[in-house]
Design a protein that fits this description.
The structure holds three protein chains of three kinds. In chain A, about 75% of the residues lie in helices and about 0% in strands. Chain A is mainly alpha-helical. Chain A has one domain (about 40-290). In chain A, helix 5 runs antiparallel to helix 6, helix 6 (about 85-115) runs antiparallel to helix 12 and helix 9 packs antiparallel against helix 12 (about 240-250). The relative contact order of chain A is 0.14. By secondary structure, chain B is mostly helical. Chain B has one domain (about 1-250). Chain B is built from eleven helices and no strands. In chain B, helix 1 (about 1-20) packs across helix 6 (about 95-125), helix 3 (about 50-75) crosses helix 4 (about 75-80) and helix 7 (about 135-160) runs antiparallel to helix 10 (about 200-215). By secondary structure, chain C is an alpha/beta fold. Chain C is built from eleven helices and 14 strands. Chain C has helices at about 55-65, 85-90, 110-120, 125-135, 150-165, 180-195, 210-215, 235, 255-260, 290-300, 315-325; strands spanning about 5-20, 25-40, 45-50, 70-75, 80, 90-95, 170-175, 200-205, 220-225, 225-230, 245-250, 265-275, 280-285, 305-310. In chain C, the strands form three sheets. A six-stranded mixed beta sheet of chain C has the order 6-7-8-3-9-10, with helices on both faces. Chain C has a four-stranded antiparallel beta sheet with strand order 2-1-4-5. Chain C is globular, with a radius of gyration of 23 Å. Classes of the chains: A mainly alpha, B mainly alpha, C alpha/beta. Chains in contact: A-B, A-C, B-C. At the A-B interface, helix 4, helix 5 and helix 10 of A face helix 2, helix 4 and helix 8 of B.
Chain lengths: ~290, ~260, ~325
């Protein structure tokens, strides 16, 4: 099974038509000269959606800590209202999911920024191992995602009064780390795909929205149609959230291990997919001599 | 009369400009559909199959809010980046007449979300589009868009004063969905959120649309929504005048 | 009408304050305009000439209400730019160079329609006025296309059409020919000249000497935020009277040689300009001193191209004024 084709079938077709009118935008904006500006205007001008500049404290706290916490509260209260599942299901699942925002966008940026700043050609043509370079770029974003997930889980549990056994904490940390890493590689794959489609941020925005639905974090898998569950199983977070829920329920690491393993497998799959895509892209661009057009 | 004409022409042209951005339109169409799908399965899992039309409408209104929040919140910044801010602020008009069409246009673009979620619900999930008060629904939708546009003006004027406005916008999407009860009224929220909900035009707009969908008085909610929004418009107009003067003093109209 | 002048500026000053860094914010102040005074008569074509960063754009923005002066006073058509903003805006048009400032995903026609509405052009006049202007700037027939497909020159012409929609009394043109190809620039100059001949007051900023020389009734040379000289092109040219100019094309002139030339008796200014592989050395001297042989002696051993001794032009006058500031 190839993940990219799966993903392609899950997103709306317009994304894959060549958006020609966009072509000129980055070129003209180049002249503005400011790094942040260029990033900000990458995919329209909406900060959240293009997720520029996390470097100011306000931006980081607002976008990556407070925003996700509200997301968790939204679904937790929705779940309480509709009596779909208990607090633990929503709090733990959404906390794991909050890592996805930073990780998917981060992974995408790892590729997209290279292109944006005109350095992709150099990286692709450098004699060093490209695999290592790109995988390495994912790590900080995954670490960031893990931090966000931990903060969100702590805040969510305190606010909504969820008790988590202390013995479950190391395992939970492991589950969230696995989810973050898998998400980072997923983002890297999207970024690589994005080399083919001019507006990579549309792809990552849609992907982040789809994760809400397909990972079974907000609708229990039993309530989703079979094909969505299948797609969800090939997405990051799904298994990490499952493992985290088991751990938070006090089931112990042994009970969570299979799901944890699956999450790592999914992550490894995307890590491989990203590298293969980048390789293919490199070969193609050499043949077509299109590296400078990036 | 001239002012009304400016509002209408301005709104249409800004909506046209926004509608031609592949990014904006894809986000406006795809994300709400994902949200609506989520809502449908949540409602089904919660044994509320009979309220699926509400779910589709609710998800659409959530899309309208997202469009207004990000579009209006960043309206002035957007114009600045395009280099059009100086050009439009130089017009011999009150600032509110210049910016309001832009924020209403973000509401208009938000209706794509509402239309898409309804169409998608009809086609994929066979949700019958049987509204309790069809005419009232259309009126409520129009009022809701204009009202949120007015609210958007207040956002535009206040966000531009803040250094980290984008961070604020990023945090305000979910809480407003939650507190306003856009998808479904949340009776299990803490009591202290009730006054906040009561002063948000989004609460009343969503309520009016829900009442028009599944039965209820509609008009009182429409009136309250409009009333609060006009108040926001007035506050926004004052803030905007202040903003314009400050920008001329601090040289922040252009990029430089 | 009120005032006999279209534009009056009295001791205009403008300071920019900036804050940098969020951990330890530092405040910096830059004085962009430092006491600028001048008047422009009705129907006059007035040029503001100066190097980049001289304060041209700031001066224009102080006059067209986009900036509030830090101190000093300015009036346009007799209305104070700070207090009677709307009165001023009704009477002015503003066009800047470059290709931003338009709605890219809209057609030229839609752009003009929108700005016509904004600038209060009466609905019944809009159609005719827009058609006239499209004709004037040579975009008729292409008005239905989206602006994102336009060339730089076309955008620039659309900008001009936009600035003229409400038939302003005073038109501010900020570096209109920047980045425009020579043919388009010439057409642009013709359009500007036509406007001035029909009674529109034009304030033009530019750093192209020829443009200012060809178009302007009077020119103010601005450098360092202050007016260094003001007069008709002929008057300014006289600033370089009593001078002679020697131009030498050379390949690889060392800094030491330039310094040596600079120290020659009778030499007033020396400038080196890189032109591809060669360097153009321009030496201003007192008219009664022939420095050519001295200059060539200092450059001995360096490969030289054309050597020329000539009367000063407006450009030389400009160089003299700016380098004296």
């Amino acid at each position: 099974m190839t993940f990219p084709s799966l993903l392609a079938s899950a997103v709306a077709p317009p994304l894959f038509s060549p958006p020609t009118p966009h072509r000129r935008r980055p070129h003209r904006r180049e002249r503005l000269g400011m790094k942040t500006l260029r990033l900000m205007t990458v995919g329209g001008t909406i900060a959240y959606r293009a997720l520029f500049n996390w470097t100011t404290p306000g931006m980081f706290i607002g976008t990556l800590l407070v925003g996700p916490l509200f997301q968790l509260l939204f679904f937790a209260y929705l779940g309480r209202q509709l009596q779909v599942a208990d607090d633990r299901f929503y709090i733990v699942g959404n906390a794991v999911l909050t890592a996805s925002l930073a990780c998917v966008f981060g992974g995408t940026m790892a590729v997209a920024n290279e292109r944006r700043y005109g350095t992709l050609g150099h990286v692709l043509l450098s004699p060093r191992s490209r695999t290592a370079i790109f995988w390495g770029r994912v790590i900080p974003y995954a670490g960031n995602g893990l931090l966000i997930a931990v903060v969100t889980l702590t805040a969510g549990a305190l606010l909504l009064g969820l008790r988590i056994p202390v013995s479950a904490l190391p395992g939970l940390l492991l589950a969230m780390a696995a989810g973050s890493l898998a998400c980072g590689f997923f983002g890297l794959t999207l970024g690589a795909l994005g080399l083919r489609f001019r507006d990579v941020w549309v792809v990552s925005n849609v992907a982040v929205a789809l994760l809400l639905l397909l990972t079974g974090v907000n609708v229990p898998a039993a309530g989703l149609p079979g094909w969505m569950v299948t797609v969800g199983n090939a997405l990051p977070i799904t298994h990490a959230a499952e493992a985290a829920r088991r751990l938070a329920a006090g089931d112990g690491l042994a009970a969570a291990a299979p799901a944890l393993g699956q999450e790592l497998l999914v992550g490894a799959g995307y890590a491989a997919a990203a590298v293969i895509l980048l390789k293919i892209f490199e070969v193609e661009s050499r043949r077509r001599a299109s590296l400078d057009a990036l | 009369m001239r002012s009304l004409r400016l509002l209408v022409v301005g709104t249409l042209l800004h909506a046209k400009h926004l509608s031609r951005s592949p990014f904006e339109v894809t986000i406006a169409l795809v994300v709400p559909v994902v949200q609506a799908t989520l809502a449908v399965y949540l409602f089904r899992a919660g044994g509320e199959q009979h309220r699926l039309l509400e779910a589709a409408v609710g998800a659409g209104v959530m899309g309208v809010w997202s469009s207004v929040l990000f579009g209006s919140g960043g309206a002035i910044q957007d114009q600045r980046w395009q280099g059009t801010l100086e050009m439009i602020m130089l017009a011999p008009r009150r600032p509110v007449l210049i910016i309001l069409p832009i924020t209403i246009a973000t509401g208009v673009v938000g209706t794509y979300a509402l239309l898409t979620t309804l169409l998608w619900g009809r086609l994929l999930y066979g949700i019958r589009l049987e509204f309790a008060h069809p005419v009232a629904f259309v009126v409520a939708a129009v009022v809701c868009v204009v009202a949120l546009g007015m609210f958007g003006l207040l956002l535009a004027a206040t966000f531009v004063l803040m250094r980290n406005a984008n961070a604020l916008a990023n945090t305000l999407e979910y809480p407003v969905w939650l507190v306003s009860g856009m998808l479904v009224p949340i009776t299990v929220l803490p009591a202290w959120t009730a006054p906040i909900a009561a002063v948000l035009p989004t609460t009343w707009g969503a309520r009016a649309l829900r009442e028009a969908t599944s039965g209820g008085p509609v008009w009182p909610s429409v009136a309250v929504c409009l009333g609060i929004s006009v108040l926001c418009l007035a506050l926004g107009a004052v803030a905007l005048t202040h903003v314009e003067r400050r920008a001329r003093a601090a040289a922040t109209l252009a990029l430089a | 009408m009120g005032s006999e002048y279209a534009i009056e500026a009295e001791d205009l000053r403008r300071t920019y304050r900036a804050r940098t860094g969020w951990l330890r914010p530092r405040r910096t102040e830059v004085e962009a305009v430092r006491g600028v005074s001048f008047t422009v008569g009705r129907g006059e074509l007035f040029g503001l000439l100066g190097p980049n960063g001289a304060g041209k754009t700031t001066t224009i923005k102080l006059l067209n209400t986009l900036l509030i002066p830090t101190s000093g006073m300015a009036r346009v058509c007799g209305h104070d730019v700070e207090k009677e903003t709307r009165e001023v805006r009704r009477r002015i048009g503003y066009v800047f160079g470059g290709d931003r400032g338009l709605y890219d995903r809209l057609s030229a026609l839609d752009n003009l329609r929108y700005f016509a509405e904004l600038y209060g052009v009466a609905p019944r006049d809009q159609k005719r006025r827009i058609a006239e202007l499209l004709d004037l700037v040579g975009l008729a027939g292409r008005e239905g296309e989206r602006v994102e497909g336009y060339s730089r020159g076309m955008r620039q012409r659309l900008h001009i059409a936009r600035g003229l929609l409400h038939a302003p009394d005073v038109l501010f043109l900020d570096e209109p020919s920047i980045g425009v190809d020579p043919v388009a620039a010439r057409e642009l100059r013709r359009t500007v000249a036509d406007l001035a001949s029909t009674g529109t007051t034009v304030l033009l900023t530019t750093h192209y000497m020829a443009e200012a020389d060809e178009l302007c009734d009077r020119i103010a040379v601005i450098a360092d935020g202050q007016i260094q000289a003001l007069g008709t092109p002929a008057e300014l040219r006289r600033r370089a009277d009593g001078r002679r100019v020697v131009e030498v094309e050379a390949y690889g002139v060392p800094e030491s040689a330039v310094d040596a030339v600079r120290d020659l008796p009778g030499v007033r200014e020396t400038a080196v300009e890189a032109r591809g592989a060669l360097q153009l050395l321009t030496v201003h001297s007192d008219a009664h001193v022939d420095v050519q042989s001295d200059v060539l002696r200092e450059l001995a051993g360096i490969r030289l191209g054309r050597v020329d001794s000539r009367e000063p032009t407006l450009e030389d006058a400009y160089v003299a004024i700016v380098s004296a500031s």
